[in-house]
Design brief:
By secondary structure, the chain is of the alpha+beta class. It has helices at residues 16-26, 47-52, 70-83, and strands spanning 2-7, 32-37, 40-43, 60-66. The protein starts with a strand and ends with a helix.
C-alpha cells in the first residue's frame, strides 16, 4: 500500500470535469484506489463516489493505492490533481 496526502487548493472545490478525469484514469489500474476525506473513504474509480464527497477548497485528501500497480497509479493520480490546478 502506498499513499500521499495533498490539500485541495481550488476555490471551486473538486468539480465534475476533474472528478471524471480522476475516475477514468483510476479505472485503468488493477489496484484499489481510494480517496480518504475527513475519515471517509471514496472509490476513486467512480465519478459519483468522488462527487458525493463534496470536496471543498483547502480539504486534505489522502490518496491511497493498494495492489499490483499501486506506485504507477499513485503517481498518475497526483499528476491529475496537479494538471487540473487542484493542488
Amino acid at each position: 500500500m502506498v499513499y500521499e496526502e495533498i490539500v485541495l487548493k481550488n476555490a471551486e472545490g473538486l468539480h465534475a470535469r476533474p472528478a471524471t478525469e480522476i475516475a477514468k484514469s483510476a479505472s485503468k489500474y488493477e489496484c484499489m484506489i481510494k480517496l480518504n476525506i475527513n475519515g471517509n473513504e471514496y472509490n476513486a474509480k467512480s465519478v459519483l463516489n468522488i462527487m458525493s464527497a463534496g470536496i471543498k477548497d483547502k480539504t486534505p485528501i489522502k490518496i491511497i493505492c493498494d495492489g499490483k500497480d499501486e506506485g504507477k497509479a499513485l503517481t498518475e493520480m497526483i499528476n491529475i490533481f496537479k494538471s487540473n490546478s487542484l493542488v
